[in-house]
Q: What sequence folds into this?
């Protein structure tokens, strides 16, 4: 198993659909993250979970709803999205500490029609 | 506050040319510094890191030295290959909040044969 696995890799949805992105990490890390990467924009931190507790919500619209049932799994539930939400959504995990780096999944490419 | 500034791209080089991508930072406390690389269609991967002043991170022929006096962490490679074409991100984390990473905007490198 690779370190951080994201499914699906590609998702196309209409503005009225409800879908979810899934992330799983096999590294034993305590922190998990959602980032949004849009074309020509800096990487945007969306949510951080530390020991299953949400520690960061970077003013993300409520149409994005995260869920972290345990330290190994992270979901991003999507509903009534807008076309401008089309982006690459990256999940990451880390073991917090000096020099503790982020390990990223390969991303879920979302297109909202 | 904490932030990372890296040079605008794209950077276009011929194969075997010398590469420098500049990165400077501002940080409260003593940050850990990272370079990540993103190949087309993939997530970000850690390229190298350094956790204290004068440390040199190195990997795959890339190097960067933690310069506290100039608050810099410039990425260098002596001889680039076509396969190095990617987007490179400089990042930092700070001791009082290991869960928060600050990323630069990314520098796209194109290497021509």
A:
């Amino acid at each position: 198993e690779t370190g951080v696995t994201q499914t699906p890799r590609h998702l196309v949805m209409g503005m009225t659909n409800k879908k979810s992105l899934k992330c799983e990490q096999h590294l034993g890390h305590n922190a998990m993250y959602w980032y949004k990467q849009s074309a020509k924009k800096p990487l945007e931190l969306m949510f951080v979970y530390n020991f299953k507790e949400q520690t960061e919500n970077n003013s993300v619209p409520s149409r994005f709803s995260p869920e972290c049932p345990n330290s190994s799994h992270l979901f991003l539930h999507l509903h009534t999205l807008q076309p401008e939400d089309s982006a690459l959504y990256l999940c990451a995990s880390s073991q917090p500490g000096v020099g503790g780096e982020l390990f990223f999944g390969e991303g879920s490419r979302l297109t909202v029609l | 506050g904490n932030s990372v500034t890296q040079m605008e791209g794209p950077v276009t080089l011929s194969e075997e040319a010398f590469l420098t991508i500049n990165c400077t930072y501002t940080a409260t406390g003593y940050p850990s510094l990272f370079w990540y690389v993103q190949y087309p269609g993939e997530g970000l991967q850690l390229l190298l890191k350094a956790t204290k002043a004068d440390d040199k991170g190195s990997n795959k022929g890339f190097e960067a030295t933690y310069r506290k006096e100039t608050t810099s962490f410039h990425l260098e490679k002596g001889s680039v290959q076509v396969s190095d074409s990617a987007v490179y991100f400089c990042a930092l984390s700070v001791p009082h909040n290991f869960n928060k990473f600050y990323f630069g905007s990314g520098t796209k490198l194109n290497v021509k044969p």
